[in-house]
Automatic annotation (TrEMBL):
<dbReference type="Pfam" id="PF13377">
    <property type="entry name" value="Peripla_BP_3"/>
</dbReference>
<dbReference type="GO" id="GO:0000976">
    <property type="term" value="F:transcription cis-regulatory region binding"/>
</dbReference>
<keyword id="KW-0804">Transcription</keyword>
<dbReference type="GO" id="GO:0003700">
    <property type="term" value="F:DNA-binding transcription factor activity"/>
</dbReference>
<dbReference type="Pfam" id="PF00356">
    <property type="entry name" value="LacI"/>
</dbReference>
<dbReference type="InterPro" id="IPR046335">
    <property type="entry name" value="LacI/GalR-like_sensor"/>
</dbReference>
<feature type="domain" description="HTH lacI-type">
    <location>
        <begin position="8"/>
        <end position="62"/>
    </location>
</feature>
<keyword id="KW-0238">DNA-binding</keyword>
<protein>
    <submittedName>
        <fullName>Transcriptional regulator, LacI family</fullName>
    </submittedName>
</protein>
<keyword id="KW-0805">Transcription regulation</keyword>
<dbReference type="InterPro" id="IPR000843">
    <property type="entry name" value="HTH_LacI"/>
</dbReference>
<dbReference type="InterPro" id="IPR010982">
    <property type="entry name" value="Lambda_DNA-bd_dom_sf"/>
</dbReference>
<dbReference type="InterPro" id="IPR028082">
    <property type="entry name" value="Peripla_BP_I"/>
</dbReference>
């Protein structure tokens, strides 16, 4: 019977690399503290021996989990998939794991989050939900449970936290101006959920573009929504009930735009023959819907990567003093087939990226 092969140890790595075990530990946990030549020797020795770091034991010794917690407002929303993928990739490159949690309505969300840190399951929080109360988040990040926190996607006004987002107001104005440039003068807007910061920013951008063009934005053309497809479908009913209908619609996200188009189609209306529509986000389905959806493409991968990078930088010792970091990324206007000049139908428009 063959004896089980002994697992390689840090001592084996140190012997082959001709350095101390302390140097191996520094090279693996904080490579910036050793020279490039030493890092190369240790890396080659790790590859030769097949040594793997016992992360669980290391976490127990250092009282850290080397894990970041990502909190979402709605885990069902496919918008977050690309962001989560980028967070996971950046975290893995830095030697961190990722936990994902959902905000549940009717529960105390901050207490739910705090439990992760009290039980040492996570070291820092990446928050993709701007609906939580600022004073509760400040309490979460202070004594007795100190939690490094970075906000992404949804900005929390007047917060002291690092933030990574896109310029929603500017992008919404650009979407609306695209419809104006096509000759549309009656332009409606499907709103996001009431009280949501993204709803407010995108509505402000829509109104800004309408005002700058000298166009009226009738309250009847503002349709309630929830960022869910069903609310876009319901908005189509409100649209059809109007005596004077908009010739174009800016939806605050792609899901509502697609729901709206579906509702119109049930009543024999087609896009863009009867109404042009533009969305926001550029979900994967936007390209493959009929017609392919003109939309605003958020840099979701960059949001996830930069947010994870900012949080891990804090965990790795970056000073938290001074002004909070605020990264605002540009979005792209993606032209497809769901928008056309007023009174004109272009069924075969190619995708165009407007930077």
């Amino acid at each position: 019977m063959t004896a089980a092969r002994k697992a390689p140890t840090i001592q084996d790595v140190a012997r082959i690399a001709n350095v101390s075990t302390a140097t191996v530990s520094r090279a693996l946990s904080n490579p910036g503290r050793v020279s490039e030549a030493t890092r190369t020797r240790v890396s080659e020795a790790v590859a030769k021996t097949g040594y793997t770091l016992n992360q669980a034991a290391r976490s127990l010794r250092q009282k850290t989990s080397r894990t970041i917690l990502v909190a979402l407002p709605d885990i069902r929303n496919t918008f977050f998939s690309t962001i989560l993928d980028a967070i996971e990739r950046e975290a893995a490159l830095r030697g961190y794991g990722v936990l994902v949690t959902n905000r549940f309505s009717g529960h105390d969300p901050v207490r739910h989050l705090k439990d992760y840190f009290r039980s040492n399951r996570a070291d820092g929080l990446l928050l993709l939900d701007g609906s939580l109360e600022l004073d509760e988040l400040i309490d979460l990040t202070g004594s007795p449970v100190t939690v490094p926190l970075v906000v992404a996607c949804e900005e929390i006004p007047n917060s002291p936290f690092h933030t990574v987002k896109t310029d929603n107001c500017f992008a919404a104005a650009r979407a609306t101006r695209h419809l104006i440039d096509l000759g549309h003068m009656r332009i409606g807007h499907i709103l996001g959920p009431e009280g949501n910061v993204l709803t407010a920013e995108r509505r402000a951008g829509y109104l800004q573009a309408m005002q700058e063009a000298g166009l009226a934005a009738s309250p009847k053309w503002l349709f309630p929504g929830s960022f869910e497809m069903e609310s876009g479908y319901l908005a189509a009913s409100h649209f059809l009930a109007l005596q004077e209908r908009p010739s174009a619609i800016f939806a605050a996200n792609d899901e509502m735009a697609i729901g709206f188009l579906s509702g119109l189609r049930e009543h024999g209306l087609e896009c863009p023959r009867d109404v042009s529509i533009i969305g926001f986000d550029d979900l994967a389905v936007a390209l493959h819907y009929a017609p392919p959806l003109t939309t605003i493409r958020q840099p979701r991968a960059a949001i996830g990567r930069l947010a994870a990078e900012a949080l891990i930088d804090i965990l790795e010792g970056e000073s938290r003093q001074g002004e909070p970091l605020r990264i605002v990324l540009n979005s792209e206007l993606i032209l497809r087939d769901s928008t056309a000049p007023f009174g004109v139908h272009h069924p075969n428009a190619a995708e165009i990226r407007c930077t």
